[in-house]
Each structure stands twice: as C-alpha cells, then as structure tokens.
Amino acid sequence: MKFSFKNDYSEGCHPNILQALLQYNLDQQAGYGEDEYSLKAKTLIKEKINNPHSEVFLVSGGTQANLIVISAILKPYQCVISAAPGHILNNETGAIEATGHKILSIETEDGKIKPSDIIPILEGHRNVPHQVMPKLVYISNSTELGTIYQVKELEELSAFCKENKLYLFMDGARLGHGLTAEISDLTLEKVAALTDVFYLGGTKNGALIGEAIVINNPVLQEDFAFNIKQKGALLAKGRLLGIQFMELMKDNLYFDLARHANQQAMKIKNALQNKGITFLSDTYTNQIFPILNNHLIEVLSENFEFYVWKKVDENLSAIRLITSWSTGDEAVNQFIEIIEREL
C-alpha cells in the first residue's frame, strides 16, 4: 500500500467528528443551518475572531465558497484580481468567469499579492465605462505555493484596498496551516480585522466537508444568505456542517490538526535540505515543493503518491508533497529513509 502525499483529501475526518455525528444523530433539529450545533459553531468562530458583528455562513466546499462570495460581492461590470497561481484561476473550471466576472491575473513568484502589484491593474483600467472595474482582491493563506502572509504584509494590503475602494477576500482553504506555520505572526483575530471576507477551511483540515465563510464587512452581509440558497449551497441538513465545525472549534482542535500537518512536512523539508535539495518556494506549511531528479522521483513513486508539479529541465522536476492532520510518523520516516539512502 502506498502512502499518499497527493492532497489533503486522502484521509477521512477526525474521530471526534465521527463520534459527534453519531452521538447527535437521533436528535431532532431545525433544518437549513438553524440547528443548535450550527448556531454553536458560529458562536465559537465569532469568539475566536473577537468580532461579534461578523456573520458566519457554512457551506460544503472551497470552490463553492469562492463562487458564492465573489458572485455575491461583485456587480455585473466588476472583476476580481488574483495572483496567477490562484485557485480561482487554475482549479475551478472557470466557475467565477461563468458568473460573468473577469479575473485579472498578477504574475508572482511566491503566490502572494503586494499593493505594488495592483497599481498597474488600476492604472490600466481607467477607461470608464469601457473596461471592467477592478473591485475585489482575492488572496489565499496559505497560498497555492505554500507561502504565507505576515501581519505587516496583510496590513499594507488591507490599507491599500481600503484607500482604493477594493474589497479584500481571503481564501482560507488552508488557513489553519497558514496561521500555525512556525514563522507566522498572523492570528485569526488579525485576519478578521484586516479582511472584508475570509473563510475557514474544514475540508482540508479534519472535516469530512465544510468551509465557514466569515463576512466582516456589514455592507456585504446583507442578503448574503439568498446567494447561498440560489447557488444550491444551503444544506437542508445543515447540522452536518454545524457539528463538524463545532468539534473543530472546541479546544483549538482545528489549529492542533493544522500544526501537526505542518510539523510533519517540516520533517521532510529538513531532511531534504540536509541533502542539498532546493525547493520551488520556501514554505513552512504542509505543502512543500522539492526539486528532484527523475530517478529519485521514480523511486519515491514506488511507495508514495504525489504530484509532479513543474518540470524544471530535462532531468529535474518540482514535486508537491502535502501532509495532512493524520499523516503519521511511519509515512514520514519511510520517505526520509529513501531520501537518505538514495542521496
């Protein structure tokens, strides 16, 4: 049997969630997210972000969250700005464009957006009313390249967006991993204070399914629930999402799971670095992108599943390794043993 470092979905959910789903299974509850577990989960999230005025909406997946948030915020003639590796550009089958909204791409080496990256786009879209209007900046933390935003970076980006009347939306599919990275100085409370909208990803961090959209800007909260229903994302049995986030928010389980995933990835990263291996990007989260020769990739493929991410030259390629909340020492140690043997 191969160990999978291919994605965050290789495992099921944390046992606490399965136990809770079984424990509360026979309780009769209101539908459409009005059950006591969903309400409790939302209260716990508001407490952790220290913003009782934020509104929390539970949906089933990341693409769904991105689609609903962006299509709800933007008027028909407005568009979204994204880094070139952004999930909405490369992995969502044109979901955003299908709603009629253009995505303006920014080339970036580390997957992050700086205010200086946005200025040329704003200057290039002043031919009013003949061009689409940039209105929303989409970022990810951690990014699709495993990098993270620090407090200063997010503060500068947030201030720039406010000055230029742009909304700031953070894709948090891997937010737990971003916040618990060993070099991170960003907190969940800071994220809530500096963004108009973000979401907490459960699917990639211990849940069966589920993302918690958090809207901090009161202007964007109004009528948002209609968009969820219209897009088919309002689960009749909303308790399925509520129970999961209730458990994830208890005793900081959400962050403990993400921290474990990061630590397992760093064990592999350190072992590779000790052998002189370089990386496509310098990451401290559960995604790492080592650049390996074709022979070593072939050897590793015999025991592990992973993506060959980017070809560097005829002999070298960057692979993507993702560890999860349940990645055990056996898989990590076996990977390191092969590295030490082959290099």
Question: What brief labels describe this structure?
Answer:
single chain; 343 residues; 7-stranded mixed sheet; 17% strand; alpha/beta; 4-stranded antiparallel sheet
Molecular structure report:
The protein has 343 residues and is of the alpha/beta class. It is built from 15 helices and 13 strands. It has helices at residues 15-23, 36-49, 62-73, 87-90, 95-98, 115-123, 151-163, 175-179, 188-194, 218-221, 224-230, 239-249, 253-274, 294-301, 329-342, and strands at 3-4, 55-59, 78-83, 103-106, 133-140, 167-171, 197-201, 211-215, 287-288, 291-293, 304-305, 307-311, 316-322. A seven-stranded mixed β-sheet has the order 2-8-7-6-5-3-4, with helices on both faces. Helix 1 crosses helix 12, helix 2 (36-49) packs parallel to helix 12 (239-249) and helix 13 (253-274) packs parallel to helix 15. The longest helix is centred in the C-terminal third of the chain and has 22 residues, at 253-274.
Into which percent range does the helicity of residues fall? 40-55%
Q: Largest beta sheet: what is the strand line-up?
A: 2-8-7-6-5-3-4
The topology string of helices and strands comes to EHHEHEHHEHEHEHHEEHHHHEEHEEEH
- Detail the poorly predicted runs: none
Structural class: alpha/beta
- Please provide the count of β strands: 13
Number of helices: 15
Report the span from N to C terminus: 24 Å
**Overall 3D geometry?**
globular
Radius of gyration: 20 Å
Largest pleated sheet: 7 strands, mixed
